[in-house]
Design a protein that fits this description.
240 residues; 11 helices; globular; alpha/beta; Rossmann fold; 26% strand; binds adenosine-5'-triphosphate; single chain; 4-stranded antiparallel β-sheet
Amino acid sequence: MLGVTGLSVSYGLHRALDDVSLAVAPGEIVVILGANGAGKSTLLRAIAGICEGQATGSVSLGGTDLLARTSDRIVEAGVAFVPEGRGIFGDLTVWENLTLGAYSERGRARRAENLARVFDLFPKLAERKRQTARTMSGGEQQMVAIGRAMMANPDILMLDEPSLGLSPLLCKELFQTLSHIRGTGMGVLLVEQNARQSLAIADRGYLLENGEITGEAEAEAMLNDPAVQAAYLGGAAAAT
Ligand code: ATP
């Protein structure tokens, strides 16, 4: 279980997150919805240990405190992060990118098993393993980014706007893939602009406004909440 309690992050005088608490259980997809600048990326980056701001509060995984840890020790503890823009190495091949994902001790220990799992999830990556990552399509690069994170053998997978720039068909495939990943028992913490599709596959959601959690509900209840529909789903009419 990933637990965030009373997490606040400031960039100088600007408080980007204020007293945020949330939880992600194994085998659960949790989505964070929020407007631009609400603090969504700050939240994921703070959990991953790569936030430039000053963080206070508590982030823990299975009782291990993560907030004081460096980013590589957070990966070692079991949290992997797919940042916005994917962050893959464009000049390296698919295979090399995936191999780099297994640099942690916990990833190395189960490299062959995880590689089989990634290729099972994304058969295209197996076909294209010698291709240079930057020559792949946006959707394929997103597969590389998710595959690389899975090579760290995480308990919790965090993704920042993974559907950004993908066609409607690829978005659909991406969300189906996240459902499959949940099926392996991994917890998924997702930040998404695509509220409708992400809530459709999620178990629970949180609303983040101006750095504060203003709502938490089962995903289905959120999809049917008029206030959520108005703010994030393009109004009630679009929800039908
Ligand atoms: P978006 O959906 O637009 O990416 P977001 O919800 O992910 O937005 P953040 O990127 O977390 O929001 O930003 C939250 C606030 O913190 C914003 O006001 C932003 O300008 C500020 N901020 C983010 N990163 C930094 C930084 N490195 N230095 C200073 N301020 C920052």
